[in-house]
UniProtKB/TrEMBL annotation:
Origin: domain of life: Eukaryota
Organism of this sequence: Aquilegia coerulea (Rocky mountain columbine)
Protein name as it appears in the record: Phytocyanin domain-containing protein
A GO MF label: electron transfer activity
InterPro entries assigned to the protein according to its UniProt record, in alphabetical order: Cupredoxin (IPR008972), Phytocyanin_dom (IPR003245)
Domain Phytocyanin, first and last residues per copy: 30-144
Length: 148
């Protein structure tokens, strides 16, 4: 009887450790609003913002907030550029659209950085004009986060 109780409490203990470990890991992943209170708009220096908000980590979520097209704001979007060269040039030719002009409304568009790789984000509107002149681009290399 005493042994059985001991076994149960051991299993329960292991479960609790497992649960708290996953909660611990989830608690560490951050949700970051791109641009902070500036959100995602034309003419804000996002490279600077990314620099000030680094390091960012694997499984951190970036939230892009921008209003869907209306009479008072320009439409925006989110593209992943292919490499550093296309990032520098705001070359959208082989870029991948991850959020269209309507995806940034309400709670915003959420992008989780799951891979250990550089991410080159840019607005794809105006054929690169928002990226180039509007400074709507930034690069992130999410670091692995160690937790024990
Ligand atoms: Cu834009």
């Amino acid at each position: 009887m005493a042994f059985k109780c001991g076994a149960i409490s051991y299993a329960e203990g292991a479960l609790i450790i497992l649960l708290s470990a996953s909660m611990f890991a989830a608690g560490f992943a951050k949700t970051i609003v791109v641009g902070g209170t500036e959100n995602w708009h034309f003419g804000f220096n996002y490279t600077n913002w990314a620099f000030q908000n680094s390091p960012m980590y694997l499984n951190d979520a970036l939230v892009f907030k921008f209003e869907p097209p209306n009479n008072t704001t320009f439409p925006h979007s989110v593209y992943l550029l292919r490499d550093f060269r296309s990032f520098l040039a705001c070359d959208l030719r082989r870029a991948k659209m991850v959020a269209n002009v309507t995806h940034g409304g309400r709670k915003g568009f959420k992008f989780v950085m799951k891979k250990w790789q550089p991410y080159y984000f840019a607005c794809g509107e105006g054929g690169g004009f928002h990226c180039k002149t509007g400074m709507m681009k930034f690069a992130v290399f999410p670091l692995p986060r160690y937790h024990f």
